C-alpha cells in the first residue's frame, strides 16, 4: 500500500481551509489616507431628493484630485446594514485636513 498518496491528499485538505481563511482576513481594498494642507471650500448647498426605500442619501462633498478640490455631487447609498449613513467629511488636525470616509453607524 502506498502511504505517500494519502499524505498528499491530507496536505491539500488541510491547506485549502488555511488558504481560504487567509483570503477572508485580507482587506478587499485599502484606501490611502488623504492629508491636505489647504482647507476645503465651503460645502455647496444641494437639495436632497425625496426619500428612496432601501437607500440613504450621501451629500455631495469636495474631494481632492491631486491638484485641487473638485465637487463630487451627492448620490444614493444602498443600505447594507441596520443603522444610519454618516457621510464622509473633512476634519482639521493642526495645519492639515484629513478626509474621513462615510460609513454606516448603528
Automatic annotation (TrEMBL):
<protein>
    <recommendedName>
        <fullName>YXWGXW repeat-containing protein</fullName>
    </recommendedName>
</protein>
<dbReference type="InterPro" id="IPR024447">
    <property type="entry name" value="YXWGXW_rpt"/>
</dbReference>
<keyword id="KW-0732">Signal</keyword>
<dbReference type="Pfam" id="PF12779">
    <property type="entry name" value="WXXGXW"/>
</dbReference>
<feature type="signal peptide">
    <location>
        <begin position="1"/>
        <end position="30"/>
    </location>
</feature>
Amino acid at each position: 500500500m502506498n502511504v505517500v498518496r494519502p499524505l498528499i491528499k491530507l496536505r491539500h485538505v488541510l491547506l485549502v481551509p488555511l488558504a481560504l481563511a487567509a483570503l477572508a482576513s485580507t482587506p478587499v481594498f485599502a484606501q490611502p489616507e488623504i492629508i491636505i494642507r489647504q482647507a476645503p471650500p465651503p460645502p455647496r448647498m444641494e437639495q436632497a431628493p425625496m426619500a428612496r426605500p432601501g437607500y440613504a442619501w450621501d451629500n455631495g462633498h469636495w474631494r481632492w484630485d491631486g491638484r485641487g478640490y473638485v465637487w463630487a455631487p451627492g448620490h444614493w447609498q444602498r443600505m447594507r446594514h441596520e443603522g444610519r449613513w454618516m457621510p464622509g467629511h473633512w476634519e482639521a488636525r493642526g495645519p492639515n485636513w484629513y478626509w474621513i470616509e462615510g460609513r454606516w453607524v448603528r
